[in-house]
Design goal:
240 residues; alpha+beta; 7-stranded mixed β-sheet; globular
Length: 240
Amino acid sequence: MERGDRRLTANRHGCDSGGAHGRGCAKAAHLSREVIMTAVQPVRSEVRRAAVQDRSAIAAVLAAAFHADPVFEWVLPDPARRAAVLPRFFALTVDALAHHDDTWTTGRPVLGAALWVPSGQPAVPEDEAAGFGAALVEVAGRDGERMLEVVALLDEHHPADPHEYLWFLGVTPQAQGRGIGSALMGPVFDRADPAGEPAYLEATSARSKALYERHGFVAQAPISVPGGPPIWPMWRRSVS
């Protein structure tokens, strides 16, 4: 809301506090607030559970959102290969989590998605974990070893205590900065907070870390694979 706040500071635009000119500025500021709130409020109402037919669109949106992510840049250093691999990587991930029915997206067209794992459940069932890992390595191709390093690091540091786990959250670059990422977290916060459940995630960039901090997540000491970028484990305690 920084941009909106600047627009609503009337005196920065030559308005004084009295007279007809001042009343005109006050009316303009009120109208600006209405426009801003009208633009922001519908975002949350458009968030919905993903359907089976959203799979390809969600994979494409997440691939675009994470193309410039520092961790994926390290795992898949060639930009052309990254662009080719990420849609298949996220298609596998969306499929692996489908049984949870806890992937959230926007109204059509799909502009973003949040892939959650409900509290107390493994992301991937134990009897499917090896096959899922092998599929990720196959998709990564010659960069499979780097992929395994990151997966092993995250597994090693993943907490054992029950928690809502946000595995991936991404918004297509053209729609970023409109509150969509924040809205996509809302449905799970709505169930976690009354239940007293914490939430956990790994932030893979300083920008995403800042977003999550605005929503109550607290960063722990960063972790990384040798030569890789920092990853911040983050916890959010429930809000009563």
